[in-house]
Amino acid sequence: MIAAPLLALAALTLPALLACGPAPKGAGDGNTDSGAIDTGAGPPARGPSPYSLDEVLRLTDAQALGTHNSYHRRSDRIVDPSHDYDHAPLDVQLEEQGVRQFELDLHLHASLGWQVFHLPGDVDEGTTCLALADCLGTILAWSDQNPWHLPLTIWLEPKDEDLDWAIPELEPFVDRHDELERAILDVIPAARIFTPDELRGAHPDLPTALAAEGWPTLGALRGRFLFAMLDSDKHRAAYLAGAPALEGRLMFVDADTPADPFAATFKINNAVADAALVAEVAAAGMLVTSNIDGAGSDEAEAQASLDGSLAAGAHLLSTDYPAPVPERAYFAQIPGGTPARCSPLTAPAECTPNEIEDLARARALAAEASR
Asked: Full-prediction pTM beyond 0.85?
């Protein structure tokens, strides 16, 4: 609980924080003594591919839904209107809402480990999965049951400077990213994670690799995970120290320009207002996530943002409304998606949404192959 004086200070601080959205808590410290990385295993056995274009289509040929602050549950006491929304558990988002990108806000608790939430205490702490390990485990369990899914992008946003000073047990972790990587690998097998090293290959940096070869095909990425750090300040600088092109790192990062040696993934909050940047980034073959709405946003404006972001070429459309809610007509849907669709900017003419993802068909073929 945050004491009354701290709550008052939190209220004064909130306007600067709310643009980033809400969050709760999560644990799983992932510390290991040996430092060894378990290489794990790839996706479960899944039989023949149900997709005839898997060696043609690439990751950036698809457009799919994501969610903003994907763990978020509406609190009993709403401090700010931007907190007034509710997400289903992560596996429900995957299964029923077609979500293929998540955002998880991170805090580090001194005794409980890595936690997933927005703002501590009574400010905005509702969550469907308190521990990071639980969040990742829920996603992995669904993935294991659906090994032909599109690759899942998971943005991890450090939030240790957002009111964590008010809770003595919450610690800064700008120098503890190795621990965070181990915590991820405690849950997700290394072979299931597509890394910057894998993208870069023999090239000197990520933009050069993308210009020469682009992203791997969907066939190479189905059933896998792509992690990215959502920060452009101290955490990113520390994560890049000694690894300017993310050499040896597990996660991608949010880039500023396509010329950055680490540039491959971008979080562009408003793809309509920044359409020129989206076009530049997409033309360079880089992956773009864009916010399309927020809690309480005008419905007509939200729909226009969704339509405009798709037209601009954003690949992952992050929403607070991936499913219908009472008293609102608007919710985010990918037009013609199953649940994703072909990008109108880059996908070849033969691409259809069913070749991007059709889990019902994939499940039927997998069941037939297992008989």
From this structure: yes
